[in-house]
Amino acid sequence: MLMSSSAATTPEGPGSVSGVPHLPEGFTGTFTSRYVDTGDLRQHVVTGGDGPPLLLVHGWPQTWYAWRLVMPALARDFSVVAPDQRGTGLSGRPEGGYDTGTLAADLVALMDALGHRRFAVAGHDTGMWIGYALAADHPGRIDRLAVAETPLPGVSPSPPLFASAHLNNALWHFAFNRLAEVNDQLATGREEIYFGWQFATKAARKLPEYAVRYYVDTLTDPEALHASFAIYRALDATIAQNQRRKERRLTLPILAIGGQYSLGEQIADTMKLAADDVQALVVPGCAHWVAEETPEETLAALTAFLAPYRG
User: Fold this and answer.
1) What is the pLDDT of residues 190-218, one digit of tens each?
2) By CB neighbour count within 10 A (0-12 exposed, 13-18 middle, 19+ buried), where does 119 fall?
3) Are 75 and 31 in contact (CB under 8 A)?
4) Angle 126-137/235-245 helices, nearest 10 degrees?
5) Dihedral in degrees, nearest 10, Cα atoms 55, 60, 62, 63
6) In three state form, how does the secondary structure of the chain look?
7) What does the pLDDT look like over 150-184, one tens digit per residue?
8) Is the distance from CB of 88 to CB of 64 less than 8 angstroms?
């Protein structure tokens, strides 16, 4: 297994396996935090389990912790890899490199360092953007792809500026997050208002207060707050990349997951614009945060979808 010397350093404190709140029973007996140096980026990753590798890619404004409720059961069948992306959690925060091509390359380098040549991927929210880039840019590496709960820039039709109030409430953060500086200025000292609103209004089943507090606390550092917007600030580059990517349709199996009270069938409709083998799933009673609102249903869906890969 290839690994740099910095990978042996054990992360501690907030954000690490030893420092996050309310993990499922037995979690720390299966999973450990580590740092992996992949060249220009030190990545924090949580790993555990046995079986073929499964990469879990979190969304915004979250960390690896978003997958905590499904990780123990997945670890019975898979070697689970749950990183903090560039700019998030305990991973490095370089100034640039937040287009999805670079973010996908980060994760390929991580999987190389962990000794995983071919792997399956599940990505939620902005993790869906990165999952699409992984499958399109590194087709020989990805066996199956599950994605959930976001439009896909450069692939999905862009909504009008004067959308309905419902659509505006769901998507206005795209434009806000892309701003160069004023979003940092407006959110500083008001992180609980801004990010708390995101978690509250996009949930059909309220997330636990401890989880929301944890996510908000990770964003009170000015550098962390600035980096949290970076994937949105890089959307011009990502959109251009996706417009090129969709010229070559994906052929691998894809599971497209939408919440009943959020995007629903739209996730499958989006992926069908770019891929040939798409299975649709709408999770009942769920809105945006599928792995936290409905972990049992999410786990069942992933287990069934990944069964051929596991075999």
Assistant:
1) 999 999 999 999 999 999 999 999 999 99
2) buried
3) yes
4) 40
5) 40
6) CCCCHHHHCCCCCCCCCCCCCCCCCCHHHHCEEEEEECCCCEEEEEEECCCCEEEEECCCCCCHHHHCCCHHHHCCCCEEEEECCCCCCCCCCCCCCCCHHHHHHHHHHHHHHCCCCCEEEEEECHHHHHHHHHHHHCCCCEEEEEEECCCCCCCCCCCCCCCCHHHHHHHHHHHHHHCCCHHHHHHCCCHHHHHHHHHHHCCCCCCCHHHHHHHHHCCCCHHHHHHHCHHHHCHHHHHHHHHHHCCCCECCCEEEEEECCCCCCHHHHHHHCCECCEEEEEECCCCCCHHHHCHHHHHHHHHHHHHHHHC
7) 999 999 998 888 889 988 998 999 999 999 999 99
8) no
Q: φ and ψ at 42, to 5 degrees? A: -95, 120
- Around 162, how many Cα atoms within 13 Å sit in the side-chain half-sphere? 0
- Assigned token pair, 18: 């030893």
| Residue type for position 210 | Y
Tokens 């360092």 locate to 113
Which strands, in side-by-side order, build the sheet including 32-37? 32-37, 42-48, 79-83, 53-57, 119-124, 142-148, 254-259, 278-283
State the angle between helix axes of 191-201 and 209-217 in degrees (0 to 180), rounded to the nearest 10.
140
